[in-house]
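Hi team,

Below is the intake form for DNA adenine methylase from Dyadobacter psychrotolerans. Please confirm the fields before the structure is written into the shared record.

FORM ID: S-0412
PROTEIN: DNA adenine methylase
ORGANISM: Dyadobacter psychrotolerans
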Amino acid sequence: MNKQLNLFGAELELDEPKNKVVNVASVPQRSPFRYPGGKTWLIPTVRKWLKQDKKPIPLMIEPFAGGGIVSLTAAFENLAEKVIMTELDPEISAVWETIFSDDNQWLADKILHFNLSIETAKAALEIDIKQVRDIGFNTILKNRICHGGIITKGAGFLKNGENGKGIASRWYAKTLYDRITAIQQIIKKVEYKSYDAFQILEDYRDCSDCYFFIDPPYTKAGKRLYTFYDLDHAKLFEYVAKVKGRFMLTYDDTEEIRGLADKFGLRYTTIPMKTTHHLEKNEIIISDNLEW
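The structure came back. Fields below:
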């Protein structure tokens, strides 16, 4: 039977995750997104992974930036000297392009002073906008007022939310302002690109000092949560297997994903997490090294 290592190096059977669920309230919240499939809960594990070589990391790359919590953590906590984030989804990309630009303060101010109501939200989202910063604002707006933070077409507004506040229940304008303006401190450390994940993996394939944190749209939830969910997972495994640097690839724990890991000779372990509906489930961590 194929065995795996837990995060402390001991051999486990495949169905025996030994790690406790992380309380996300214990992790600094740095992302402006409420992100389905976000990795805040994984941050304590990511920190250990990034420190495994006991020396500064020249470059960490996150090909599927999404909510960006891993990249932000690596930059803020000086776990990497430089970070590259890439994302193809045009709406998510617009947010990061705006944040990592001279329009950072504009976006923060726009959020802080926006008078949120159902009427103002509908009016903002119905305007045909072209500027990247305006698309970025509308994406944050949808992410904060739609069910589950889902920004795909058809996602409805929150009706009840926290304490019956409806669409305002997740619109923490001052908190968003603070998170976005704080990112100004690390702008020089982070390079953001609207770029293809496969291409960035190819570009840096031979970088032996690079760390790759790879969190693709998930096989089970992707269609509901993401605009760009149609991903060739076998191709991704093939690309990851060729990189010379360190990597961590995260996925739903499914037979398909285990099969792909086995096919390409990649080691994996499971780790428990709690969903937004407080259901515990396992995810798979696939890595070049699990002994950290």
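SUMMARY LINE: The radius of gyration is 19 Å.

Thanks, M.
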